[in-house]
C-alpha cells in the first residue's frame, strides 16, 4: 500500500468503514486562534464560538457534524490557500468554511456524506472533494466547482492518496453493496474502473493543522507566565468545580475561582493586547474569561443555541445618474432598506453560514421610468440567495424617469452585509 500525502479525510457518520475503528468524538476544547480581532476559538459539544478582543463571544455556529474513523475529526483549522492565515473547515451538514476572522467564506449547504481536503486542483492550495453518496464532486478552496465523477453506482466511501507517484492525490472509491473500488486521479480521470481491494491507506491528516490547547495546562504541572514577566512560574489546577491559580514555589493556591462545572480546557493569552494576560476557561456549560489574578470574571454560555444572531444590511452609498431627478431616484432605492434587511434576516435565520460582505448592484431605468435591469457589479458575498434577494427587492421599487430617451438612468447601490451573535 502507498501512503497518502497532503490530504485530509473526514468520514461521515452515516458510513461504516472496516479500516477504521469507531466514531470520532468531538471533544470540547479551546484554540489559540491566530487573529488579533478574534483571538480565541472555543469548540463546544454542539458547535464553535469565537471570542473577540473585547473578551466576549462575537460569533457562534452550530451544525450537524459527522465523522467516523480513528484519528479523524469533523472540524479542522487549516491554511487552505497557504497565505499564512488559518481557516476553519467543518464537515457534516452543511460543510462550511470560515475565514480567520470567523466570517463565512462559503458552504455546501446540503452537506456531504464524506468530505476530503487535498491539493486536487493546485499544489498551492487545499481543495475540497465531496462524496454525497451518488457522485464525487471537487471544488477549489474558494468554492469554485472543478469536476464531478458520476460512477453510475452509489458510492460508499473514498480514500485519498498519491497512488500513481506523481505527488498528486488520487481517489479510490468503494461502490455501495460491493467489494469493487474505482480509482480516479485528481483531475477526475478514471484510472481503473474496478479493483477488488484498495491500495491507498485509510486515514491521514494535513500537516500544520492548528490543534486545541493541551488540557495538561490545567494539571498544575505546566508552568504559565500569567503576569508576563518572562517567567513561567505560575500554575493552573483544578479541584472539583474550582479553578486554582498558584505558583510553582508553593502548594497553596493564591486564588480559587468557583466555576459551574469541572474545567476541561484553559488558555492564557493577552486577548485585548493591553499588555496583560487573561485566562479563558471552558466547562461543559460555560466559557469563563477573567484576568490573570482570577478577578473580573465574566461568564458566557458554551451552548451555541443560546446566542441570538443580529443581521445587518446597510447602504454604504447610493449614486444615481442621468435621471431628471437624481435625488428622487436614489431615494427610491433607499426606500427599499426595510425589504433588503428583512430578506437578509430571513436568509441568516435559515442558514448559520449565510454570506457576509460587500455587494454592489447597478439599477437601470428608461425614459418612461420602467426598470430595465438590476446588474451585479461586484459581490464579495459567496451566497447566491442573498444576491438574488437583493435584486428582487430593488426590482419592486418605483423609479422616476431617466433624463433622456437615448440613455438609461443608472443607480449604483453599494451595500454591506454582516451579522454578529449575542
UniProtKB/TrEMBL annotation:
Domain of life of the native organism: Bacteria
Q: What is this protein called?
A: Uncharacterized protein
Q: What is the lineage of its organism?
A: Bacteria, Deltaproteobacteria, Bradymonadales, Bradymonadaceae, Bradymonas
